[in-house]
Design goal:
Blueprint: E1 4-7, H1 9-23, E2 27-33, H2 40-56, E3 61-67, H3 71-76, H4 80-95, E4 101-104, H5 107-119, E5 129-131, E6 148-150, H6 153-169, E7 183-186, E8 189-191
Parallel strand pairs: 1-7, 2-3, 2-4, 4-5
Antiparallel strand pairs: 6-8
Helix pairs in contact: 1-2, 4-5
């Protein structure tokens, strides 16, 4: 019964999977910080990836690598996401050697993944393709060129404030008869950049 402004994280996962499968990748790894009920967006992105890989069939495979991080550590450690991406990518190269694409839970984790791949002597996207979510500003830099999912967070924030102001301006309390529940959902858009390409042979 609450008014909400949200993004479709399941769809975001399917967009990334479709893109990578379309390039020819058949083993994708999903790298995430804590994956549990407290972090529904992370779970829904994984579910979208998994559903698309399953639907594709043809031997396509999805590996999951996570790192459990206490909430307070996530909040109070500035570079925790970069550190996590770096360590998860190193694990991925050892534990899922057949993976040719790594999908990070967000762009900050993806930057750590990129650094780990380069630190190991590999190149992007020749040896590994890398994707993120959120399309934050540095992802568009030429030296980064990260393929990412745009969620239109700024527009969503504006919609949320506008919706809140409208509700606060009402003179009488809402009843079931006087007002409907409003749900605003922003569609995602995949921004393809140089961090993704055809898989290595």
């Amino acid at each position: 019964g609450l008014d909400t402004v949200d993004v479709n994280n399941f769809n975001a996962g399917t967009l990334v999977a479709k893109h990578l499968l379309g390039l020819g990748h058949r083993h994708i790894a999903y790298l995430s910080t804590s994956l549990n009920s407290e972090h529904s967006a992370r779970v829904r992105r994984y579910e979208g990836l998994k559903a698309q890989v399953k639907q594709f069939g043809n031997g396509a495979k999805l590996s999951l690598l996570t790192s459990e991080i206490p909430s307070l550590t996530e909040l109070n450690t500035v570079d925790i996401e970069h550190q996590t991406g770096f360590s998860l990518a190193k694990r991925c190269m050892k534990e899922a050697p057949g993976a040719t694409a790594m999908v990070a839970i967000n762009d900050m984790v993806a930057y750590g993944v990129i650094d780990a791949i380069k630190d190991a002597g590999y190149s992007i996207p020749t040896d590994y393709s890398v994707c993120g979510f959120d399309n934050i500003y540095p992802s568009s830099f030429l030296g980064v060129g990260l393929t990412s999912v745009e969620h239109y967070i700024i527009q969503g924030g504006k919609s949320a404030v506008r919706l809140l102001c409208e509700k606060m301006s009402q003179q009488v309390p809402r009843t079931l008869e006087s007002g409907a529940v409003t749900r605003v959902e922003y569609q995602n858009r995949l921004i393809v950049r140089t961090s993704t390409g055809k898989p290595r042979l």
